[in-house]
Amino acid sequence: MATEHSAGTQAHGGAAHSDVFPPFDTNHFSSQLVWLALTFGALYLLMSRIALPRIAAILDDRQATISGDLEHSVAMQKKAQEAGVACEELLANARARAQALAEETHLRLAEEAVETRKSLEHDLKESLEAAEVRIHAAKERAMHNIEEIAAEAATAIVQQLTGKTPDAASIEAAIAVGHKV
């Protein structure tokens, strides 16, 4: 009972095959080359006629989109730079106008202050002159009243001391002498 089974390769029909790897079997090498050439040709035609043109179209569209976007971004960057320059010019003009307006306002206010000061000085001078006139008039009235008061006082004193009323000429002469001293 010694049936040995070999571990060889057998087809379903029970025929034994050689121990060579089928792609390397020289009996089938020519047919494999034919099938290789046919498969390569079919794949080449399929790739060159269908797949590669689609891929090339996709790459061309992508390149066109990228180029368009780059051109658009360059144009936008140029516009942004122009807008920045225009903005800087506007800011410089606005600063210059503001500076000129500030200087003009400063000069106008200074002129108004000078005019106001001159007007106030004039009003004060007029008030001072009027006050001096009033003071001089009050002084004159006071001096006139003092002479009358002095004459009355001298008359009363002389009358008290001597008991006689002095004459007005002698009292005026005494007051005039006192004025000179």
Describe what you observe in this structure.
Helix 1 packs across helix 2 (168-180). With 181 residues, the chain is an all-alpha fold. Helix content is 81%, strand content 0%. The mean pLDDT is 85.
State the order of secondary-structure elements, H for helix, E for strand: HH
Arithmetic mean pLDDT: 85
Cα distance spanning the termini? 184 Å
Number of strand segments: 0
What's the main sheet like? none
Low-confidence stretches: none
- What structural class do helix, strand and pairing data support? mainly alpha
Shape from CA axes? rod-shaped
Question: Which features does this protein show?
Answer:
181 residues, mainly alpha
Quick gist of this model?
The protein is mainly α. The protein contains two helices and no strands.
Topology (elements, then pairings):
Blueprint: H1 29-162, H2 168-180
Helix pairs in contact: 1-2
